[in-house]
Write a structure and sequence with these properties.
Length: 476
């Protein structure tokens, strides 16, 4: 049967509504969607009635825990059962999921770009949704990383004068380079009873902290590795797939990471999300840190500085630091491998599945409502999100976060997204952790071990095959 374009279906629905006739284009169709369990599932449940009313589609939501979603979804897709019509997954898994997904270019063309793919911020559009030059997914959750710092401290006149006297340059607000971060971290690390911002500290205070627990600490290394490897950062030599992770620049990046431990809270090597958020935001004992968008959205929760007479809490937000080479500042924002959604190749109702995605994630009120809502856990991903007058008016002070996000997306850099990506990163994470913990003596030894492990993974998957996948990562 010749396929009727979704655009014509929509014109038909509008026309029938004008005539007072209720006609739903996919009456009786059931669309099954695999979603991240918990708050990620909330929008799907809440929109189910609207989808039924507008489109006639019954939405069957299958919640899967984040620990199981990769294996369970991939097992179902590879069995070619057609059970799922839409799947939510981490964008880093595209190398494994690609054979079981359909490209979305034609659906977007058929709707006249009502979906407004060009409205996505460039980092998400380029590195979440495009693969091999084709649109394979839509972004649910605009997750990325930003630098947070105590602007109330950075603006203090006494601290600014003391910093310039000690280091010979103006206290940077915000810090632009990792060298500046190191100076600032050393400068602001103080003991209980010392002065900070003109008042006496009631707790020890630390200049900087990473989320350094084994498992995801590799992200915090990549924040350094990428700019240190400028002006042409890569994970592998694109022509040979030789790892670049043990280059002199990579070693310098890891040494920077370890040096900053001198100005970090004790126990930071065991910190995951909660520990970093709580220490920085709720306890107020950290001057600078890099984290997901949560702090930016929850800026009003910032605790006062732990001093006897604290200034009004003020959170600074900026893109992650860079490196100056030959007088040029290179800054990059690592685009977190966050959550996207695609239509399954074996879905029996692809047009209906696209209608659901267009409803949920198109450039309209539904998408904006859920990125604004704390119930969803979805972060903004579109220009229409970050420049929404409604959001900015309803949440005074949110502008700093939204403006910083726009700036950061102009300098985006992807996570690794080829088959075995998780395994590559896990080996990197392992040896970083060993080095930071003192189990390996030098950064060079640690990263030489990583390079050897990466070579083994590449050989196992096939060097030529991995080279082709790696090239798709950069095709626009």
């Amino acid at each position: 049967m010749k396929r009727v374009s979704l655009l014509l279906v929509m014109f038909f629905v509008v026309g029938m509504s004008w005539l007072g006739v209720s006609e739903r284009p996919f009456e009786g169709v059931i669309i099954t969607v695999a979603v991240h369990s918990g708050h990620h599932a909330t929008p799907w449940y809440r929109e189910a009635a609207n989808i039924k009313e507008l489109l006639g589609i019954t939405l069957n939501v299958v919640e899967i825990s984040p620990e199981e979603i990769y294996s369970r979804v991939l097992l179902e897709l590879s069995a070619r059962t057609g059970f799922f019509d839409i799947v939510q997954y981490n964008s880093a898994w595209i190398g494994d999921f690609e054979p079981y997904l359909v490209t979305l270019d034609e659906f977007i063309f058929d709707t006249g770009d009502d979906f407004a793919f060009g409205d996505y911020l460039p980092g998400f559009r380029d590195f979440h949704n495009l693969w091999g030059g084709k649109i394979v997914s839509v972004t649910l959750d605009g997750d990325t990383f930003l630098l947070y710092y105590r602007k109330d401290l950075f603006e203090n006149a006494e601290e600014r004068a003391a910093f310039k006297a000690r280091y010979g340059y103006d206290l940077p607000d915000p810090p632009m380079t990792w060298s500046q971060v190191l100076d600032l971290a050393q400068f602001f690390t103080r003991k209980k009873g010392e002065k900070l911002a003109g008042s006496t500290l009631k707790k020890d205070f630390y200049g900087y902290a990473d989320q350094a627990k084994r498992g995801r600490v590799y992200y915090w290394y990549l924040f350094r590795y990428i700019p240190f490897s400028a002006p042409n950062p890569h994970y592998f030599d694109p022509n040979t797939m030789k790892p670049l992770i043990n280059s002199p620049e990579a070693i310098a990046a890891l040494e920077n990471m370890k040096e900053l431990l001198n100005y970090s809270p004790p126990g930071v090597l065991g910190w995951e999300w909660d520990e970093l958020f709580n220490a920085a935001m709720l306890d107020g004992t950290v001057a600078m840190w890099i984290h997901w968008p949560d702090e930016g959205r929850r800026f009003s929760e910032l605790a006062p500085l732990p001093v006897e007479t604290p200034p009004e809490p003020k959170l600074g937000i900026a893109s992650t630091p860079g490196v100056v080479k030959d007088g040029v500042l290179y800054k990059y924002t690592l685009i977190d491998s966050a959550w996207v959604a695609s239509i399954c190749r074996d879905s029996r109702n692809k047009q209906a599945a696209w209608a659901v995605l267009n409803h949920m994630f198109g450039a309209g009120a539904v998408s904006l409502r859920w990125v604004m809502s704390p119930e969803s856990g979805w972060d903004p991903s579109r220009y229409s999100h970050v420049f929404s007058p409604l959001w900015r008016a309803n949440v005074p002070g949110i502008d700093a976060f939204l403006d910083a996000l726009v700036d950061a997306m102009r300098m985006s850099f992807p996570c690794l997204k080829i088959p075995g990506a998780f395994e590559y990163m896990d080996k990197l994470d392992l040896y970083i952790s060993k080095y930071l913990a003192g189990e390996i003596g030098t950064a060079k030894e640690a990263l030489d071990n990583v390079a050897l492990e990466w070579e083994k993974i590449t050989e196992r998957f096939g060097r030529e095959s991995q080279k082709k996948f790696y090239s798709k990562l950069w095709q626009r």
